[in-house]
Design goal:
The structure holds 3 protein chains of 3 kinds. In chain A, 50% of the residues are buried. Chain A is built from 11 helices and no strands. Chain A has a single domain, classed as MetI-like (MetI-like fold, Orthogonal Bundle). By secondary structure, chain A is mostly helical. By secondary structure, chain C is α+β, with helices and mostly antiparallel strands. Chain C has 2 domains: 5-232, P-loop containing nucleotide triphosphate hydrolases (Rossmann fold), CATH 3.40.50.300; 237-353, Nucleic acid-binding proteins (OB fold (Dihydrolipoamide Acetyltransferase, E2P)), CATH 2.40.50. Helices cover 24% and strands 35% of the residues of chain C. Chain C is built from 8 helices and 20 strands. In chain C, the strands form 4 sheets. A 6-stranded mixed beta sheet of chain C has the order 6-7-8-3-9-10, sandwiched between helices. A 5-stranded antiparallel beta sheet of chain C has the order 13-12-11-14-20. The chains are: A mainly alpha, B mainly alpha, C alpha+beta. Chains in contact: A-B, A-C, B-C. Chains A and B meet through α1, α3, α4, α5 and α6 of A and α4, α5, α7, α8 and α9 of B.
């Protein structure tokens, strides 16, 4: 019996994995640790620890307003992107439709165009069609950004759906619309939930589109950005830590849902 | 008598599980049959409903903005102002090539994106290989998930966290000073280095997932067979693993490159005066009081066309089939 | 009696390729009818046209005397048991069976009663609240059957429903299907490529090939009196004899088979002397003797293969006229082995003159 992997490469690979994991986690851990620093500037070592910054952030009206605004935009984006994404995916997966691959490529276009260009072209576009910058413009651009991902997730799930399911529903007396509501949608549900949470997170996370299309009301990333530019204090760390914990929890849940839908 | 029948009916409905009888009643109602039901029965109406909204959306919002941007990039003045020409012109493109102020950041951006792409590939490849091939299959998902967790924190927060690491009084400098290696902090933040470091940190996921799924698909017996035929670790990597993971490399590199070309938040937080890259130049043309949209549009077009052609050429040369997003 | 299903001159083209050609088929109510044929023969297309999932290129289908080819699937009173069952994975067994009833707008209490009744018909009462993924193949099969029966269709269509089951379970389900068909008195149209399945269950078998009907008949009829070379070959095993007609006297024809004079039944045939003809002989109808018998047909040959097959032994005999015949015998009937000389013959009514 020969050992195909001599131990050295294997150890090196393992080391690279753990180094990488530390590389990913360390900055965020430091960022979180700094939120407990009892001083109004950012610097190591931390010295005295305090929870005051959290108290301050949680009573910060600006932060709460920005959070609500971001969540509102994220929810609106999610609803629009899910409806349109599912619709496009259904069109792409339909039989006897001419130019399906062209439609699919077009649907994925915003995902390969660099984010800045997406934002700028949308800024130019909304002026051309006379939409003011602000909430609606943000939702529109976030939706355009999220649609390709919804399309791909839904298509993946649709491809695993037995073709006979819809036929069976039709056979038992469902017209195409009822069959879609009662069979296709329930089948897509796990992928839809995963996709929706993905939409929420990318929307809450987005900076560049909001930067170009936003009005006077700041979203969460815009608020954090403004605070960073205005001078750094551990207050930002506390704010970022709260956002991070919430989004990560939601993200993990989404991951769990998509994994479950695949098995 | 009446009482007992109603009672027994009530008991029956209580005992029986809930059926979606209302759907049936709704569907068989004349209201439904004459409205949605009739539409759903007609094949052409069905096709129109199926295709209508997606096609309008795709044409309006996936192509429309790019078309309008292209249009504006050829106009002398936009929005049209009295007394100024709004003819079609190539001047906006000419401006790009005539001024080093615009030209240099663009070159810098391309180099920057290439450096970031290659660094990410080199850093992530062994990690992806380790997760896909060395770890026991039952632990694989957990190992992958551990790496995915940090990516659920947003772009801006992760960029911000890099400052904690690299600032003059950040963790690295403080640690080096405590250990006695340095007396004065090394200025790392607001340089080309901190920018690249941060963007690699931001985009590693886009490399990790395609690489992982490509490497995972390589049949392990193939690697064993290569070893059996006398290939050493390096030979196995170069002749078997690398060629077979080509699709993943192409997808990962393309995604990282395209995203790196257009990063925006990272240069604002991590870049400095000596590390101005093209997105900042473009952004300046759209923000502020003296905005110059036609020039900005032209520059965006240049960036879009050059970055997409670069990726297209790369795919042609290396031979990947398509970009996979997930 | 009015046929429950009537295909009138139905054609189906896929582009230029005909899938079903000039199909004329009337199905009597209450029968178990099997469409039998190799894959690509048009049997599934025929079923899907009846279900409403394929358009007709021309012709018309009548259900209880009414044309239905313009109706979408959900407006036809026929139900299908799909090949891979197509149970809704997100609904319990109970809700799966209730699906069609719910869409009919039936009251909850009535649905509950009907579903419970159907579940007890296949002894699945205890599985009502399970999800389809928690069932075995045979149980899924039964649920699919009950789901299709629940809305009380005029005709039940079964599209190779047993093909996913293993051999033992398939035989058990064949009997169960037949029992349910007899008990409910419904018309079943069953599609399969498995001739044994067709012979076991059917009242009537429709043999299809290349989009056309080859022969319609009772299982025993088809087996004993195949009309065409295709049917003789597809159902069971046959020795095919290429010969020339010498004369016809009443129902018995005399043939010249490579210099040997043989006889066969020619009922219903209009073959003329001098024409080419094909005779079909079932291996089990042949006899095999060690000495030349008196007054009976016997052709001399030599055993080239002897294969033990459990219930019978299959012997290949090379005849002196250059052809060979397969004979199926009782394992103990003949002890001869390869190389031994034997005499082979058959009764004239066991030889069938094929139409083509």
């Amino acid at each position: 019996m020969r050992t195909y992997f001599s131990d050295l490469p294997k150890t090196a690979l393992g080391a690279s994995y753990w180094l990488f994991a530390v590389y990913l986690v360390l900055p965020l851990a430091l960022m979180m640790a700094m939120s407990f620093k009892d001083a109004n500037f950012i610097a190591f070592p931390i010295g005295n620890w305090t929870l005051d910054w959290y108290g301050k952030v949680l009573h910060d009206k600006q932060f709460l307003a920005a959070s609500l605004y971001s969540i509102g935009i994220a929810l609106a984006t999610t609803i629009c992107a899910t409806i349109i994404g599912v619709w496009i995916a259904l069109l792409v997966s339909a039989e006897n439709i001419w130019g399906k691959s062209a439609i699919f490529a077009l649907a994925c276009l915003p995902a390969v165009v660099p984010g800045l260009i997406n934002a700028i072209s949308m800024r130019i576009f909304i002026r051309a069609v006379d939409i003011p910058t602000g909430t609606f413009a943000i939702i529109l651009s976030h939706t355009v950004h999220a649609v390709p991902f919804v399309v791909i997730m839904v298509l993946t799930r649709l491809r695993s759906m037995p073709a006979n399911l819809v036929d069976a529903a039709r056979d038992l007396g469902a017209d195409p619309f009822v069959a879609f509501l009662r069979v296709t949608i329930p089948y897509l549900m796990p992928a839809l939930l995963g996709g929706m949470i993905f939409c929420v997170l990318t929307s809450i996370d987005d900076f560049v589109r909001t930067f170009f299309l936003g009005g006077y009301q700041p979203t969460l990333p815009m608020l954090i950005f403004a605070k960073v530019q205005g001078g750094m204090s551990p207050e930002i760390n506390a704010m970022a830590t709260i956002v991070l914990v919430v989004t990560t929890a939601v993200g993990l849940y989404a991951e769990y849902l998509t994994r479950r839908s695949r098995s | 008598m009446v009482d007992t029948t109603t009672q027994s009916r009530a008991v029956a409905s209580l005992a029986s599980p809930r059926y979606a009888g209302w759907i049936g009643r709704a569907v068989s109602s004349s209201l439904y049959r004459n409205t949605i039901g009739r539409l759903a029965d007609n094949r052409w109406i069905r096709l129109a409903v199926l295709a209508g909204v997606p096609l309008i959306w795709l044409v309006m919002l996936h192509i429309g903005p790019i078309v309008q941007m292209t249009n504006i990039s050829f106009i002398a003045n936009y929005p049209p102002q009295p007394g100024k020409s709004s003819d079609y012109t190539l001047a906006n493109y000419a401006l790009f090539f005539s001024d080093r102020l615009y030209f240099m950041p663009f070159i810098r951006t391309l180099i920057f994106a290439a450096v970031v792409t290659v660094s990410t590939l080199v850093i992530v490849y062994p990690v992806a290989y380790y997760v896909a091939k060395v770890i026991q299959p039952k632990n694989r998902m957990r190992a992958l998930l551990l790496l995915l967790i940090p990516f659920w924190a947003g772009e801006l927060i992760r960029t911000f966290s890099i400052i904690m690491l690299l600032a003059n009084r950040g963790a690295v400098n403080v640690l080096l000073r405590e250990l006695g290696f340095i007396d004065r902090p090394i200025p790392m933040l607001y340089t080309f280095f901190s920018l690249s470091f941060g963007v690699v940190y931001l985009l590693a996921l886009y490399m990790l997932l395609p690489l992982y799924s490509a490497i995972e698909k390589i049949p392990t017996p193939l690697i064993h067979a290569a070893a059996d035929l006398g290939a050493g670790p390096f030979q196995r990597f170069r002749r078997v693993i690398l060629p077979l993971s080509r699709d993943g490399i192409v997808s990962g590199c393309s995604l990282v490159y395209l995203t790196a070309v257009g990063v925006f938040a990272a240069p604002l937080l991590l870049g400095g005066p000596n590390a101005v890259i093209f997105p900042e130049v473009i952004a300046m043309l759209f923000h502020g009081s003296n905005d110059k949209w036609p020039e900005g549009a032209a520059f965006s077009m240049i960036m879009l066309v050059i970055s997409l052609t670069t990726v297209g050429l790369f795919m042609r040369v290396v031979g990947g089939r398509s970009i996979r997003l997930m | 009696m009015q046929p429950v299903v009537h295909f009138k001159n139905v054609n189906k083209l896929y582009g230029e390729l005909p899938a079903v050609e000039n199909l004329d088929l009337a199905i009597e109510p209450g029968q178990f009818v099997t469409l039998l044929g190799p894959s690509g023969c048009g049997k599934s297309t025929t079923l899907r046209m009846l279900g409403g999932f394929e358009d007709l290129t021309s012709g018309e289908i009548y259900l209880d005397g009414k044309p239905i080819s313009h109706l979408p699937p959900h407006k036809r009173n026929v139900n299908i048991v799909f090949q891979d069952y197509a149970l809704f994975p997100h609904l319990t067994v109970r809700r799966n069976i209730a699906f069609g009833l719910e869409l009919k707008g039936m009251a909850s209490g009535a649905i509950h009663k009907r579903v419970t009744e159907l579940l007890s018909l296949v002894a699945l009462q205890d599985y009502a609240e399970r999800m389809p993924a928690q069932l075995s193949g045979g149980q899924r099969q039964r649920v699919a059957l009950m789901r299709a029966l629940a809305p009380d269709p005029n005709v039940l269509l079964l599209d190779e429903p047993l093909s996913a089951l293993d051999a033992k379970l398939r035989q058990q389900m064949q009997i169960e299907l037949k029992t349910i068909q007899q008990r409910t008195g419904k018309t079943f149209i069953f599609v399969t490529h498995d001739q044994e399945e067709a012979l076991t269950m059917s009242d009537v078998i429709v043999v299809m090939n290349k989009g056309r009907i080859e022969q319609i008949g009772k299982p025993s009829e088809l087996y004993a009196r195949p009309h065409s070379r295709f049917v003789a070959d597809f159902i069971g095993q046959s020795n095919l004899l290429e010969c020339t007609i010498v004369s016809v006297a009443g129902t018995v024809g005399t043939f010249d088979w490579r210099g040997n004079v043989v006889h066969a039944d020619v009922i219903g045939s209009t073959a003329m002397p001098g024409a080419h003809a094909t005779l079909a002989l079932r291996p089990e109808t042949l006899y095999c003797l060690t000495a030349k018998p008196e007054g009976r047909l016997a052709l001399k040959g030599r055993i080239v293969h002897r294969v033990f097959k459990g219930a019978h032994t299959s012997i290949t005999v090379a005849l002196e006229n250059g052809t060979s015949l397969v004979v199926q015998l009782d394992p103990v009937a003949l002890s001869h082995i390869e190389g031994d000389a034997v005499w082979v013959g058959w009764r004239e009514r066991d030889a069938v003159l094929l139409a083509s």
